[in-house]
Structure formats: structure tokens, C-alpha cells
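Q: Got a minute? One more chain.
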Amino acid sequence: MFGLVPFAPSNELMREGSLFNRLWDAFDTPFTSTSNLGFKVDVKDNGTAYELTADLPGLKKEDITLSYENNYLTLSAQREENNDQQDSEGNYIRRERSYGQMSRSFYISGIDKEKATAEFKDGVLKVQLPKLQEQAATTHQIPISCAE
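A: Always. Here it is, folded:
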């Protein structure tokens, strides 16, 4: 009879500190996350503005691009990392490079893009998107003439 065999955590590959786990941890970054969602973003409506908070650990401000076009807020991040190790004679002992790029877009209409602000601190990007002030509906009477 065919049966399902559960994956046991006592498997050799899953042992703490195993080569598999160390390799997996090296690749598990915001750009290669198994969730396929990339970096985590929260969007909150606080009444007068939208507040966006994005977790971007390990990035610098220069690695992040934020734009608003056609009612879409687009947040892009890019990382390029070199890890060169050389001996005393300048020969490479180990040379590793990694590169990743991620982008998320959100449809957010009715914001005052001229008053939008963003701050990046300790790996967290906070964006304030003030809503446009609703203007009171003005009515204008159009005179009707009588054609005889």
C-alpha cells in the first residue's frame, strides 16, 4: 500500500549547523526568499494620509528607488555584493559575488504627490503619502435663454 512518509526533522540534512542549512541561510535574503513576495511592506490608511512601511534589511539608501506614476507607487531595491578574500600575495582564496533586484508596486490613487515624504533608517523605509484634500463641490448656475 502506498503511504505518505512525513519529512522527519531528525534528517541528516536538517541538523543544526549542517552544510545544507548554512548554504540555505546564505541564499535566504529578501531577494531570494522562498515566499516569492520579496520584502515585507505594510500600507496603512490613517485618515489624512497613507503610510507605507517596508523592511529592507542590509540595504543602503542608495540601493532604493521610490517613484509615483499613474497612481502606482513603485518601490525598487537592488543589491550587489562582492566578498573577495585574498592571501598576502594578492591571490584569491575565495571570491563570491551576489546580485539581486526586487520591485513592488501598489495602486494608491488620490494622493498629493508634491507633499509625499520618505525616510530610511535602520533598514526600514517609511513613506508618508498625504491624501488630496477633497474640494467642496461648487455649483454654477448656467442661465437658460429663451429662443423665440
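A: Helices lie at 19-27.
Q: Perfect, thanks.
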